[in-house]
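pls design
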């Protein structure tokens, strides 16, 4: 039987719709994907609200993005904890304090550079999502775009997936591909991939918040989604499933 990734909303604390899905966003860096999700929430494209932004890095700019929006930030260096499990247990506690528990919200990883323990994932079953700058299962790990450029691929891209106990392994929700140009370095390729990340991640979160995702083994079914969407000469890409109009990338 498919697992329906539908989570109910909670009480409203930041002006969103009363039934908006509460989200915790985990960051370790700049948080540009966090910003892309916040922008689409503001535009009314995602029926969700970010309740807390969590980080293990005090200098993560994603925390500043949260403060500017009046969203509670929480940061503790993981090195202060006796074990990976102890740090994850504290994150579960903090996230739960903001109304995000099993069945009542989701956890969004936006450049969070740590593997989550099985105990963390069990606290939020079928409700933790991540974005990776490569077309999984190719090039998992921390240097997806650079590894793709070094290998000499002709197509590169990004993947949004549910998180399981293996790095960059869980069921894929949506992927987008861009041409990889001969001789192009990893930084240039990563920048073009990032533009697509800022489209497909908000789209995936919107589907999740709307209860349109169902996990069937390794597959994710998305109710009402088009098979694919394509760019043009100004911004060549292929996304599957297809992006809805309000999530299309802008050249």
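designed seq:
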């Amino acid at each position: 039987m498919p697992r329906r990734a539908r989570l109910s909303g909670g009480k409203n604390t930041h002006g969103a719709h009363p039934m908006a899905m509460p989200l915790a966003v985990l960051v370790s860096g700049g948080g540009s994907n966090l910003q892309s999700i916040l922008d689409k929430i503001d535009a009314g494209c995602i029926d969700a609200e970010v309740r807390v932004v969590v980080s293990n890095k005090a200098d993560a700019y994603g925390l500043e993005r949260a403060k500017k929006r009046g969203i509670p930030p929480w940061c503790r260096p993981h090195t202060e904890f006796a074990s990976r499990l102890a740090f994850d247990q504290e994150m579960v506690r903090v996230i739960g304090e903001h109304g995000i528990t099993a069945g009542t919200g989701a956890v969004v990883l936006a450049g969070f550079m740590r593997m989550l323990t099985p105990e963390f994932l069990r606290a939020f079953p079928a409700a933790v999502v991540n974005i990776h700058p490569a077309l999984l299962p190719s090039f998992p790990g921390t240097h997806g775009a650079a590894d793709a450029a070094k290998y000499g691929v002709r197509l590169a891209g990004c993947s949004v997936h549910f998180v399981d106990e293996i790095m960059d392994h869980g069921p894929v929700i949506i992927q987008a591909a861009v041409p990889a140009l001969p001789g192009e370095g990893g930084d240039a390729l990563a920048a073009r991939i990032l533009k697509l990340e800022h489209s497909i991640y908000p789209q995936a979160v919107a589907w999740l918040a709307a209860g349109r995702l169902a996990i069937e083994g390794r597959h994710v079914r998305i109710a009402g989604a088009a098979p694919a969407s394509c760019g043009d000469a100004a911004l060549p890409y292929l996304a599957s499933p297809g992006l809805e109009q309000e999530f299309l990338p802008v050249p």
